[in-house]
Amino acid sequence: MSWVVAVAQMLLVAVLAPFTIGVTKAVRARLEGRAGGRFGQPWRDLRKLLRKPPISPADAGMFFLAAPPVLMATSLIVAFTAPFVTTVGVGGSADLIVVVGVLLLGTVALALAGLDTGTAFGGMGSSREMAIAALVEPTLLLSVFALSTRVGTTSLGRIVEAGASDPARVFTPTSLLALAALGIAVLAETGRIPVDNPSTHLELTMVHEAMTLEYAGRDLAQVEWASAMRLTILLGLLGNLFVPWGVATELSPGWLAFGAVALVVKVLGLAALLAAGEVFLAKLRLFRMPELLAGSFALALLAVLASTILA
Amino acid sequence: MTTTLALAAPAAAPLLAALLALVLPWRTAAVVGVAAAVTILAGGVILATRVTGEPAVRGLVRADALTTWMLIVIGAVATLATASAIAYLRPESAVERRRYLVLTQLFLGCMSMAVLADNLGLLWVAIEATTIVTAFLVGHRRTRESVEAAWKYVVLCSVGVAIAFLGTVCIYAASVAAGGSGATALNWSYLTGHTAGLDPALVRLATGLILLGFGTKAGLAPMHAWLPDAHSQAPAPVSALMSGVLLSVAFYAILRYKAITDAVIGPAYTRILLIIGALASLAVAAILLIAQRDYKRMLAYSSIEHMGLIALGAAFGVQLAMAAVLLHVLGHGLAKSVAFCASGRILTTTGSPAIAAVRGMAARHPSLAATFGVSAVALLGLPPFSLFASELGIARGGFAAGHGWIVAVAFTLMLIAFAAIARHVLGMLLGPPTPPAFPPEEGGGPRPDGTSGKGGAASLGVLAAGLAVAALLGVWLGPLADLLDTAAAIATGGR
Amino acid sequence: MSDQFSEQLLNLFCGLFLLTAVGVLWRREVSALITLLTAQGLMLTGIAVVLATRHRSAEAFAIALGIGLLKAGVVPWMLRRVRRQVPAARETRPLVNVSASLIAAAGLTLVAYAAAKPLVALAPSASAHATPVGIAVVLLGFFLAATRQRAISQIIGVLLIDNGVAAVAFLATGGVPLIVELGVSADLALAVLVLQILTSRLHQAFGPTDLDELRELRD
After folding, report:
1. Which of B119, B154, B232 lies nearest to residue C195, judging by beta carbons?
2. Does C36 map to a domain?
3. I need a labelling partner for A253 at 20 to 30 A (CA). Which of A59, A225, B222, B236 fits?
4. Mutate which of B147, B153, B187, B264 to test chain C, going by most C C-beta atoms within 10 A?
5. Is the dihedral of CA A70, A76, A80, A82 positive or negative?
6. Which of C75, C154, C176, C204 to mutate to test the interface with B (most CBs of B within 10 A)?
7. Is residue A226 a contact partner of residue A72, using CB atoms and an 8 Å limit?
């Protein structure tokens, strides 16, 4: 039973992911006074890309070919095991540190692929991505650690469950600091403004787009889809960690349906909020990036401290 | 009745004088200011006769022998400074005179308040208030240098004193945890009576913070950076007050806290911190005095040196050393204020603050040169001045407490300072007279002779009287001896 | 207010109090710094109100109200006036760059935790547990005043120290006596006023330079 639920959860995340991107694009367009596409537009793009055969650069090796499936697999594994709809069973068995590690694997795979093409843009994007990742990972781990001390375990399911059963524990200085740190880390990890601009192909600024520049057809579809899923996963985790209401804590159909609806609402709500925030921000210069990330690291460290001081 | 009046007058009289200075013509206001300073002195003397047995307490105000001693110091130095301010103010504009008179009186009121406060919170408030009031006095001349000095002074002292408040809060927390409540829990009289319940770890933390905080205000190295700038840029009579009393009032706060903390955690911890501060101050002063080029800065560094010596005596903590410390506070206050006032006159006469620009004073302005020279002799600690007696007392106290090596190091450093000051001052006084750096102009510029005019001679007379008192105290304490003994006993925690 | 709820609220205010202090180190624009300082004043007021409710004392409420007026009203207003006098005040060259100072902030918080041990040990209540937050803000204020070049940044550093001390006073003891609090607040307001006037004089005398260039006085 729980396996079925976990597979369903994974499918839900996979289906939801392009819509998440669609919502951010649509909201942003609306706020900037443009007409913009519909929510489902990314799905149409994916369908179109999936029909086309992939083309590889002449010098590309196995890393380039392996990256899209690896990226896809890491996103799916996290979607399979992390507590998005329910904290019971397989979907809820994930450990926070494992999730961070698995996501990092995807990042590294893509960075290697960018290098593998041998083009200038790919290498540049990879080196930038790795610089950012190196600064973001400690923050992610620390803020996760701050959250886990509250419950005494690093199991994502237990943390979300504890939050859902005792909402008062969610609004502590620890979790606020961790939220701020994790929020910035998520922005950096998913390549959003102010760290990276997903809608630009300007060589001076692009990070994520530079690495995927050589992909085409089915491979590009996989990379895009997996990236959309990463955004959905991280937003979903952020939502469930800090707004834990609505997560199914038992495996009854009613609860599960409610949990699924709650997840969709949370993720799309956060996506809209993200897009609205992006309208008011400018992308930071690359050399100012360490400042932002050091700030989020300091916040995460403070969160850990606060969890020992105030607890 | 008299006691109540004497308790209220030292703080109230300057505040009243400040109000009057807003409306009266400046000459009258300046005389009222002198009267207020004399009132502080009189209040101290009257209280001294009343509090030999029991301290006088009225609400938040309390006077014991230590308080009255400090009041006498404040009153004596304030009388000197306010009297010589009349001559200083003559060339100033009307607005500047008024501002000067109001602020100095507020300054005096705050210092009296600080020593009279029983509540340690009020003590803090009064000391912080002195920083605010004197900020504009330091920046009085509005030149680049004086604005810079005022800025450093306010920022450093505000930060330092805020640290002292953190220490006060710690003491209050310890006191509340031990059963105290409300404002009483922060009263010095209550705290000294209830040391048993105070948490030692917290008091230790508080001691460090208090020493750091009030040490900044007292000009102890390494928190002394503001002192030479502020003291050299302020008008001379204000420098006299800041150097002569304000530093000692800040140190008085340390003494009050020391009486509490010694009873809780023993004297060793405070002693080590004070000795470090004292030796650092002496070293800084000795080194920077050697190549000093500005005579007001020279006097400022000499203040750091003397505060170091006072801290050293307080660190030894024996009765003899403590009595010597208190005597040193008075002697240094008198001699340093005379020296600063005289240096102000030198500045108006020569127009240059540089030591090199002042040569052959003894030939050109004999009376001014004599005043400055004698005050320097007093500051160097030569007999018959009281600073000789008190330095001797501190040294003997140090040997009695078993800190001979520290005394040796300290007096070696003082010898360096001695040589440096002596060389600079002799250079200024002796030698062939040089023409002034620039010729006197109509209206502005330096006047040909600082001692000219009735007011000039009169204020030099006041300064000479101050030096005479300092000399007298060196040979004969008279009725002050008992007061000094009692005050020292209170400061060592014996009472 | 139930005990648990007030404890939550207190912790929340303390967390935000610390967060605003870190924010002050993070941002360079003076207007943002003033906004953060206002927010911090509000958090301090919040702490004072929660503690006053817990003690049910009218005096504590009066203090909380006064603190709120001073720290979230008067002081920011004066700072805005400073900013008008000294336009284009932006921290361009801090002695320690922002990333390093943020890391230092985390280190200072650790130090504060160690230093506040005696205060925490004194009374094992929720409010006493939060005192390291106050001490951390004091240290951050120190750091800011020591490493920043602009006059207004130094004022803000001094104010951070003051806020931190006030927070320690509230958290460790439930607030210092009214008479002391009045004096302290009056002193603070006057100190800011003095600094405001001095800032404009500095500006007149030196032009829009860094404090680092105040080098008229030295040995």
Report:
1. B154
2. yes
3. A225
4. B147
5. positive
6. C176
7. yes
Q: Indicate the SS3 state at residue A152.
A: coil
Structure tokens at B44: 């101290």
Would you call B233 and C122 a contact, using CB atoms and an 8 Å cutoff? no
Give chain C's domain count: 1
Q: What's the CA gap between B257 and A180, in Å, rounded?
A: 43
Q: What is the pLDDT of residue B406?
A: 94
What residue has token string 């650690």? Answer: A145
CB C95 within 8 A of CB C148: yes
Least confident of A19-23, B171-175, C103-107: C103-107
Chains in touch with B (3+ beta-carbon pairs under 8 Å) read C
Q: Which of A171, A291, A306 sits opposite C8 (nearest CB)?
A: A171
Chains C, B in contact, 3 or more Cβ pairs below 8 Å: yes
- Chains sharing 3 or more CB pairs under 8 A with chain C: A, B
pLDDT tens readout for residues A25-74: 999 999 989 988 889 999 999 999 999 999 988 888 899 999 999 999 99
CA distance to partner chain C, nearest, from residue B262 (Å)? 18
Residue C203 domain boundaries:
3-209
Q: What is the Cα–Cα distance from B198 to B263, expressed in whole angstroms?
A: 10
Hey, are the CB atoms on B147 and C217 less than 8 Å from each other? no
Name residues whose C-beta falls within 8 Å of residue B451's C-beta, 6 or more positions apart in sequence. B345, B365, B367, B368, B457, B460
From A297, which residue of chain C is nearest by alpha-carbon distance?
Answer: C103
Please indicate, yes or no, if residue C215 is contained in any of the structural domains: no
Which DSSP letter does residue B119 get? B
- The SS3 call for residue C150 is coil
- On the question of pLDDT at B345 being above 70, the answer is yes
Q: What b/e string do you get for B132-156 counting C-beta neighbours within 10 Å, with b at 16 or more?
A: bbbbbbbbbbeebbbbbbbbbbbbb
E strand segments, chain C? none
Whether residue C218 lies inside any domain: the answer is: no
ipTM > 0.90, yes or no: yes
Taking CA atoms, C2 is separated from A173, B189, B276, C124, in Å, by 19, 39, 50, 19
Structural domain spans, chain A: 2-309
The tokens for C65 are: 């109200």
Residue B141, both tokens = 């001349």
CA distances from B54 to A143, B23, B195, B226 (A): 61, 40, 20, 39
Residue the block writes with tokens 């008085």: B252
Nearest CA in chain A to C19: A177
For residue A291, list chain C residues with Cβ-Cβ distance below 8 A: 26, 97-99, 102
